[in-house]
Design goal:
With 271 residues, this protein is of the alpha/beta class. It folds into two domains: 146 residues, 3-Layer(aba) Sandwich (Rossmann fold), CATH 3.40.50; 113 residues, Rossmann fold (3-Layer(aba) Sandwich), CATH 3.40.50.1860. The chain has eleven helices and ten strands. The strands form two sheets. It has a six-stranded parallel β-sheet, with helices on both faces. Strands 6-5-7-8 form a four-stranded parallel β-sheet, sandwiched between helices. Helix 4 packs across helix 10. The longest helix has 16 residues. The radius of gyration is 18 Å and the shape is globular. It catalyses: L-glutamate = D-glutamate. Provides the (R)-glutamate required for cell wall biosynthesis. Its EC number is 5.1.1.3. InterPro entries: Asp/Glu/hydantoin_racemase (IPR015942), Asp/Glu_race (IPR001920), Asp/Glu_racemase_AS_1 (IPR018187), Asp/Glu_racemase_AS_2 (IPR033134), Glu_race (IPR004391). Keywords: Cell shape, Cell wall biogenesis/degradation, Isomerase, Peptidoglycan synthesis.
């Protein structure tokens, strides 16, 4: 078997990135690890997030991964520089790709960012956006209710709409905003509801497509792309309840045919 790409997230949100990786890189085997038992990461301290992220990384390094994708905005904000410095494999996150996609989209330089408390407080998106274009106006809002709702499998319907409507009131008061970044990989699972609440004048941006493109470019640069298996095997791991994880996985991949997929429980206590 070819060496796989490793993907980590605090829960099920990173599956939105995995779906896009499979679509753009159909010959690449993937190993996904979602820390569903300790999700959400947003309210946790930087030290906790770094500890949990390193535990996931060590788990995947034992699987002989050739590259790491941090499909979690909070973990990206707090750990990516350290991981890139200390690991011998390429490491990318989701914040810079999301920022690039938003810059391409905006017509008036007013960009909104919604994410976890940790991501918003880190200022990582504001920094990434202004590194690309210095005159960007950034409005940020933490949405702590979204991740727990998604982890319960509530992705649409009246309850999801009510929570989204109530949560987004402060950021939607900014009439000039024309682009909204989903600064958490859980949020694309609510994208239809968020778009409906935000209205058609606002472009809602997920970092998944741009992250997959950066992954492809990174594989080519390091000459580690897999060119052989048209239907590679994939492994998904979760640290918490597998029933809900499987249910959400089935919703995300219901219309997809990406090869053999196995889903297992992961124990990070002894990694």
């Amino acid at each position: 078997m070819e060496q796989p790409i490793g993907v980590i997230d605090s829960g099920v949100g990173g599956l939105t990135v995995v779906h896009e990786l499979m679509r753009q890189l159909p010959k690449e085997p993937l190993i996904y690890l979602g820390d569903t038992e300790r999700c959400p990461y947003g309210p946790r301290t930087k030290e906790e997030v770094k500890q949990f992220t390193w535990e996931m990384v060590r788990f995947l390094l034992k699987k002989n991964i050739k590259m790491l994708v941090i499909a979690c905005n909070t973990a990206t904000a707090f750990t990516i520089e350290e991981l890139q410095e200390k690991l011998d494999i390429p490491v990318i996150g989701v914040i810079k790709p999301g920022a690039r996609a938003a810059i391409k989209s905006t017509e008036n330089n007013y960009i909104g960012v919604i994410g976890t408390e940790g991501t918003v407080q880190s200022g990582a998106y504001s920094y990434a956006l202004r590194q690309i274009k210095s005159d960007i106006e950034v409005i940020s809002l933490a949405c702590p209710a979204f991740v727990p709702m998604v982890e319960k499998g509530i992705l649409d319907g009246p309850e999801a709409k009510q929570v989204v409507e109530t949560t987004l009131v402060p950021i939607l008061e900014h009439d000039q905003m024309d682009t909204l970044i989903l600064g958490c990989t859980h949020y694309p699972l609510l994208k239809d509801t968020i778009q409906a609440v935000a209205g058609e004048k606002i472009t809602v941006i997920s970092s998944s497509e741009e992250t997959a493109r950066e992954t492809s470019t990174t594989l080519d640069i390091h000459q580690i792309a897999n060119g052989d298996d048209p239907m590679p095997p994939h492994e998904f791991y979760a640290t918490g309840d597998l029933n809900i994880f499987i249910e959400i996985t089935q919703k995300i991949f219901k219309d997809s045919n990406f090869g053999v997929l196995t889903i297992k429980h992961a124990d990070l206590r002894h990694v």
